[in-house]
Structures are given as structure tokens and as C-alpha cells.
TrEMBL record:
The lineage of its organism: Bacteria, Bacillati, Actinomycetota, Actinomycetes, Kitasatosporales. It comes from Streptomyces griseorubiginosus. The keyword Oxidoreductase applies. SUPFAM superfamilies: Acyl-CoA dehydrogenase C-terminal domain-like (SSF47203), Acyl-CoA dehydrogenase NM domain-like (SSF56645). Residues 251-393 form the Acyl-CoA dehydrogenase/oxidase C-terminal domain. Its cofactor is FAD. This is Acyl-CoA dehydrogenase. InterPro entries: ACX4-like, Acyl-CoA_DH_CS, Acyl-CoA_Oxase/DH_mid-dom, Acyl-CoA_Oxase/DH_mid-dom_sf, AcylCo_DH-like_C, AcylCo_DH/oxidase_C, AcylCoA_DH/ox_N, AcylCoA_DH/ox_N_sf. Residues 141-234 form the Acyl-CoA oxidase/dehydrogenase middle domain.
Length: 400
């Protein structure tokens, strides 16, 4: 593969330092495939379904036809060799640039669910589940957060697993689970009653006692089918227990990687909001000329571009550390905390540029403004990620 160093004709206006040129030519072809899909086929579906709070099921077929699922996993998906973390991150950014809900649907399936099986399962389990998931013939979900436990779920997980011979019996509840209402495979995390360690189980949607219900009346991520799951004596065979997960320490390995993906998603929200604001500033006229010619508007745009550029550079280096196999929890946490904070600023400034029109869905920007709040909170709040980084740099734990 060769890497392009010439300026790109279709380079994003937000890519001020030309980060896309770091991708190889082959990688960029895949990125452009995702860009075309999101612009031409996904974007027309977004606002209507966001307003209704419904998931457009045709999205599954669109992604299936695109061949974009399974790319990070060697031996699975359309491209048998695994792609770089830089491409995976840039793809997450690209999808969120159009809509954060759609990127979350894809990220839950292709990231949280598939990566849990890829890293936590043995070879037989990977071969059993991942081919159909890579083809998007089967959809995945990831169930960790609980109604009474979010940030404290590592030590306070209430969902239990009790072994009876070659079967595990699961009881408990999960909340805010993306794709829960229609997923074929749900990776459920539960505390073993015997040794008190967290273990992972692939629960299939038709197993008796598995009951997901859609969460209604959400302010953000309205396209995502978040569900609250009740598990009542769900009997799962030992063959469905992820064989390489023995404690929450193993789960943390999964979260470290997926947390980086959320930071890329936050970058995409920044890019999308900035592009909308820039286009509006060029077109909207007040006092006889475009508002983009006013100093205060330019100041907001330049500050937004600075946040995007700084965040993008941080994530490029994080991806390089991932590809080298040397990135650490605290590096992923710093990226999530920093980039989501900058995202909050950018969507606020972008909505401000729209003035009163910034609350009209017809202008797209309200979606970005609302969805940013969800991204800011999930995969570890800013405060929790700050404590992870703080412990690393001081050597002192401030966790309660």
C-alpha cells in the first residue's frame, strides 16, 4: 500500500492539517466508501427518524451492502487482514460527522459487541459468531451499564451468574443498552456468585427470561434503540461464556479500546457541527453581508477549528500507539475526557452561530447539540476518566 502525500481534492474543510493524508491509498478508498454511504444513503433518513425517535431498519441493509463491518478484525469481514486503528478511528469520525446515533448503532455492533467476542472469546467462539456479525446478518449489543450502576459498575455490578453444571443462570438488569431491542447476540456482563469475578456471556435474543424494552422519551441519540434489559433465570450454556474473560481486569482491556473509539466519534460530532456552522456563516446575511464576515463569528469558527485540529492530532497519535500495541488505559481516558470536552464547546459555538435557527431540526445542528451530551457521558464520564489519568500522573488513587 502507498500513502498519498499530495493535497486531497475532496479533503474535508475541517481537516486543516491534512490528517487524512496519513492514510494509505487503500485505506482512503474504504473511508471514501463510508463517506459516500453516509452522505448519499444515510443522511436522507436521519432527521425524520431522529424526530420520531425510531431506528430505520433499512440501515442494517445499507451497512450490510457496504461491506464496512468487521474491518478491524483479522480473518473476518470483507477485508481479511485487519485495518489500522487510524482507519478504524477515522471511519468512526466519518460516520459521526453525519449522525452520532447512526455511528453509535454501528459502533456498538462493530466495536463493543464484536470486539468483546474477538478479544474475549476463544477461536471456536470467534468462528461461530463473528462471520455472521461481520456480514451484518446478525447484529450485536453490549450490556454492562445497570439501572443502579454506571461509573461504579466495576465494583458494584448487581447482575449475577450462577453455574449449574454446563449451564449458567443469569439474573439482573441492564440499562442504556444500544441495539438491545433487535440484537441477535447481546454480550452480557455478570458477577460470578462463586468467585465474585465479572464474566462475559453471549445471550441470544430468543433465550427464555431475556426481556429487552425500548427506552422512550430520550433527548439525545433518538435513533439508537437503547433498551432496558431484564434477565430472569436466563440459562446460558458454558459454550456461550467468553472463555478469555476471567475478571473485570480483562473487561477493562475491551473498554480501553472502545473508549478510544468514542473519542473519535466525538471528533466526528465536532467536525459535523463545524461544517454546518461554516456553511451557514457563508450563506446567512445580516446587515447586508454574510455573517461569516463578522469578527465575532470568525472567532467562534477559528476556536472550533482549533479544538478539532488539536483533538484530531491527539487521536492520530493514540491510534499509532494502538497499532504498536503499547497504548495504556490512561492514554485512552485522557483522549475521551479531552476530546468530548472540546466537542461540547464546538457544538455550543456552532449552535450559537445559527442564532434562533439553531433550534430547528431542519438545520441539523440541534441533533449535534443534543447528541453531544450523550457522548460526553458514556464510556466513562469526564470525571471518571480524569481520575484514571490523575492516578497515573500522581501515583495516588482518588477513587472512593
Amino acid at each position: 500500500m502507498t500513502t498519498t502525500h499530495e493535497p486531497l481534492q475532496d479533503q474535508l474543510v475541517a481537516d486543516f492539517y491534512a490528517y487524512e493524508t496519513l492514510l494509505s491509498d487503500d485505506e482512503r478508498k474504504l473511508l471514501l466508501r463510508a463517506r459516500d454511504l453516509m452522505r448519499d444513503q444515510v443522511k436522507p433518513l436521519v432527521n425524520e427518524n431522529w424526530a420520531k425517535g425510531e431506528f430505520p431498519t433499512e440501515l442494517i441493509g445499507l451497512f450490510r451492502e457496504s461491506g464496512l463491518a468487521g474491518l478491524p478484525y483479522e480473518g473476518y469481514g470483507e477485508h481479511r487482514p485487519a485495518v489500522s486503528n487510524l482507519l478504524s478511528g477515522t471511519m468512526a469520525m466519518e460516520m459521526a460527522r453525519t449522525d452520532a446515533s447512526v455511528s453509535t448503532f454501528f459502533g456498538v455492533h462493530n466495536g463493543l459487541a464484536m470486539y468483546s467476542i474477538y478479544s474475549g472469546g476463544d477461536q471456536e467462539q470467534r468462528d461461530r459468531w463473528l462471520p455472521a456479525m461481520a456480514a451484518m446478518d446478525r447484529i450485536g449489543a453490549f450490556a454492562m451499564t445497570e439501572p443502579l450502576g454506571g461509573s461504579d459498575v466495576a465494583g458494584g455490578m448487581r447482575t449475577t451468574a450462577r453455574r449449574e453444571g454446563d449451564t449458567w443462570v443469569l439474573n439482573g438488569a441492564k440499562k442504556w443498552i444500544g441495539n438491545a431491542t433487535f440484537a441477535d447476540y447481546v454480550v452480557v456482563w455478570a458477577r460470578d456468585e462463586d468467585d465474585n469475578h465479572v464474566k462475559g456471556f453471549v445471550v441470544e435474543k430468543d433465550m427464555p427470561g431475556f426481556d429487552p424494552k425500548k427506552i422512550e422519551n430520550k433527548l439525545a441519540f433518538r435513533i439508537v434503540e437503547n433498551g432496558e434489559i431484564t434477565l430472569t433465570d436466563v440459562r446460558v450454556p458454558e459454550a456461550n461464556r467468553l472463555q478469555n474473560i476471567d475478571s473485570f481486569r480483562d473487561v477493562a482491556e475491551i473498554l480501553r479500546a472502545t473508549r478510544a473509539g468514542v473519542a473519535w466519534q466525538a471528533l466526528g460530532v465536532m467536525v459535523g457541527a463545524y461544517e454546518l456552522a461554516l456553511d451557514y456563516a457563508r450563506e446567512r446575511k445580516q446587515f447586508g453581508r454574510p455573517i461569516g464576515g463578522f469578527q465575532l463569528v470568525q472567532d467562534l469558527l477559528v476556536k472550533s477549528l482549533g479544538n478539532i485540529t488539536a483533538s484530531w492530532g491527539m487521536l492520530v497519535q493514540l491510534a499509532r500507539l494502538q497499532d504498536a500495541g503499547i497504548f495504556r488505559d490512561e492514554q485512552s481516558s485522557l483522549a475521551k475526557a479531552f476530546v468530548t470536552s472540546r466537542m461540547r464547546e464546538v457544538v455550543g459555538w456552532s449552535r450559537e452561530i445559527f442564532g434562533g435557527n439553531g433550534i430547528l431540526l431542519d438545520h441539523d445542528i440541534p441533533r449535534f447539540f443534543a447528541d453531544a451530551e450523550a457522548i460526553y457521558s458514556f464510556e466513562g464520564t469526564r470525571e471518571m476518566n480524569t481520575l484514571i489519568v490523575g492516578k497515573s500522573i500522581t501515583g495516588q488513587s482518588a477513587f472512593v
